Amino acid sequence: MFHRKPIEERIAERVAKRPPLKEGKHFEHRPALIVFCVVVGLIILKIVGAFVLMQSGLR
Prior knowledge:
The chain has 2 helices and no strands. The chain has a domain at 29-59. By secondary structure, it is mainly α. The chain has helices at residues 7-17, 30-56. Helix content is 64%, strand content 0%.
């Protein structure tokens, strides 16, 4: 339509330009690490909260 490459080709070119992932590094992007930590933190907070409610005798 506008004489652009298909989205798959554009994504493939962008991925090819990225440097290889460093050894021992699990998250390629900082926001991915932040989202992962927030999700894990919420899960831990929920479990700890449940134990606190059980210990206090509330239902």
